[in-house]
Amino acid sequence: MSLFSTLFGPAPDTSKPQATPPVNPPPGSTPPNGSNPTNLGTQVTPQTAPNGVVPEKKEESPLDKFNDIWKNAPVAPGNESVFGEIDPQKLMEAAGKVDFKQVISQDALAKIAAGGQEGVTAFADSLNKVAQTVFGQNAVATTKIVEQALAKQRESFQTQLPGLIRKHGISDSLRTENPLLSNPAVAPIVEALQTQFAAKNPLATEAEIKASVVEYMSGLGAVFAPKAQESGNVGGPKAPKQTDWSLFLNS
Question: Crossing angle for the helix pair 116-177 and 206-224, nearest 10 degrees?
């Protein structure tokens, strides 16, 4: 070993290529020595699409917040009759359990069995009693059915009454503040709007629903209103820019 090697160590082996750190580490890797990479390509940010193109911002509409106003939740079909569900087969089964021959006395049965004029008279009387019994029981059953139907109808009306009063209050307030909403061409739209807002917001107050209807109508007017024309060119195509030739006279 030479004196140079003893003092400074062995010389480096130059026969093998030395590995050099990459200038630009791949995305997601940690750069050596905590240095910042100089080129990591296009960075994806919340404002940048994956292809590196900044998407064009969509123009907001004053009606965007009402996109779901006309979407109703599916309602399961049901029987709206106040008499409830009527099954003819069950009615016949119930009628079959009634024994109407109990109204015929044993004496009448004996006379019928003996025959003759007394038997004919007893038979006619028995038919009359059976018919009277059927008529009386039918009247009682009908009265009970009607009473139950009226009670159900009254309950349904009481449930709808707050909504009807609120609807009337909103409609009256809207037409009082803005008589234009009473126009026959506009009134059906206003009524449909207030009904829809009330259905989708059952706990909303009259003032809240009225404000929503007014906001919707205002947004509708802003969307369909004609765009403002440039000054000096109202009602016609945009005029081409004219050349000011006086600029060349002083040059």
Answer: 60
CA distance 180 to 174: 9
What is the C-alpha to C-alpha distance for residues 83 and 89, in angstroms, rounded to an integer? Answer: 16
Q: Which one, of 99, 123, 128, lies nearest residue 111 by Cα?
A: 123
Rama region for 232: left / alpha / beta (φ>0; ψ in -120 to 50; rest): left
Residue type, 165: I
pTM of the model as a whole: 0.45
Q: Is the CB of residue 233 less than 8 Å from the CB of residue 239?
A: yes
Residue matched to tokens 């803005």: 178
**Helix, strand, or coil (residue 20):** coil
Q: Which amino acid would we find at residue 232?
A: G
First to last CA, the chain: 86
pLDDT in tens, 67-107: 888 887 555 445 567 777 778 888 888 888 888 888 899 99
